[in-house]
Amino acid sequence: MQPIISIKNLSKTYDTGHHALKDVNLDIQKGEILALLGPNGAGKTTLISIICGLVAPTGGSVTVDGYDIISDYRETRKRIGLVPQELAIAAFDKVFETVQYSRGLFGKKPDNAYLEQLLSDLSLSDKLTSELRALSGGMKRRVLIAKALSHEPRVLFLDEPTAGVDVELRKDMWKIVNRLREAGVTIILTTHYIEEAEAIADRVGVISGGELLLVDDKNNLMQKLGKKQLLIELKEPAQAIPESLAGYALALSKKGSEIIYTYDITSDGTGITALLQAMAEAGLTMKDLKTSQSSLEDIFVNLVNPQ
Ligand SMILES: Nc1ncnc2c1ncn2[C@@H]1O[C@H](COP(=O)(O)OP(=O)(O)O)[C@@H](O)[C@H]1O
Ligand SMILES: [Mg+2]
């Protein structure tokens, strides 16, 4: 099957001389959800901006549905929706009108029923005539998504869709993404939260310093790189890890008031039940339990300095 997006030897050097992208190659299949994971400055927005025709590449090529993003710009742009990282919004526009207008820009026939359904899916039904300036940040972001979907694109780019949004909106966003996937829309999102990639992506690309370091099926990636930590808060601080627990990968922190257990996310058993049992037998009483996921930072360290 022909990929919906095909990126070949793509590079970008800005006028400042900065190499923001270095020879990126990537095929994206129809209907998949791809997360581009990378720290600030990695080149994520640059990559998306090139595909959407907002930034000119300095080398290589990209096709969308077989059309070249430069010579067939109109064809490629029609098929793409973009929710930009920055909240750029005209304060006095009204919700329904601005979404209608976006659709019109792409030369699509008016279809208010479609737009009403779209806005309803985004929980904006009661805001149709509100001015954008009257909306909360989260609501504004929903409007941006509606605008990006107004012309029924086959590919949706979400640039850091949940950076700085509240938990409720983040969950809603994931639901929206899933619904769009069911409708056959291909979704490319950038994020620096590995939890987000884990929650919704089929495939994950790791990008750093303008290079696509790897692209892999999410489960493979988590298997290769994922480690989780369990933070066990103790009722009484411990001086040292009891010898009977030497078989576990444990560390003491916070002056002995917390034990950190690192385990492999994907091994058959986490060993947590046995550990808690052994802790109780060693006389350690726990107050609270938390888990934390290896950060993108850890993953990069692993990628750059494989053990
Ligand atoms: N218009 C520009 N001119 C010069 N440098 C830029 C421009 N836009 C981005 N950059 C630089 O390119 C690098 C990648 O930026 P960007 O693609 O925005 O990264 P990300 O979205 O992953 O944070 C950064 O070092 C950034 O400072
Ligand atoms: Mg960015």
From TrEMBL:
Residue ranges annotated for the ABC transporter domain, each copy included: 5-234
Organism: uncultured Thiotrichaceae bacterium
Lineage: Bacteria, Pseudomonadati, Pseudomonadota, Gammaproteobacteria, Thiotrichales
Keyword Nucleotide-binding: yes
UniProt entry keywords in alphabetical sequence: ATP-binding, Nucleotide-binding, Transport
One Pfam family it belongs to: ABC_tran
Listed GO MF terms: ATP binding; ATP hydrolysis activity
Protein name (Swiss-Prot/TrEMBL): ABC-type multidrug transport system, ATPase component
Top-level taxon in the UniProt lineage: Bacteria
Gene3D superfamilies for this protein: P-loop containing nucleotide triphosphate hydrolases
